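anyone seen this seq b4? input:
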Amino acid sequence: MARSREWLDRFRPAGGPGSPSVPGVPSDARHRADEFDVVFRLLVPTEQECARIRSAAVRKAAERRTAAESLAAAIRAGASTAASAARATAFTTASASAPASSERAAMAASVEDLRRRVRQRMPVVEAEVRRVLLEQLTDLGGVSPTLVPGSGSRS
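predicted toks r here
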């Protein structure tokens, strides 16, 4: 432990501006490092806890990212399957033997009805995808829902 005289030497006045001078430098600074060892030893458990929390957060973020990617892949696969089925149905309908004009009108009405239903359902699907993705991003702490265009009300 530093003696009181050495401790008081820390507070002696330094020289004025200009070149460095000896009076502003403590006589022996080796003792000071020893004084802080106790403090640094007390911080070791805190540093370990911080490292544990950081690694857990990184692991959880990776798990959530993987889950979000899986969900997005499932949504894409479902949409692709639905689109393929709609194309196949349209092709089958269109490739039938030359339909009469009344049948053409019925097919046109059917196609228009299908387009109308898609236009009606698309906002619902889009809103669900946006909600799920925003929920995942918000859980990760990466984005505020009020900052994403089309995510709802802005405060």
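The mean pLDDT is 77. The helical segments are 4-9, 30-95, 101-140. kinda curious what u guys think
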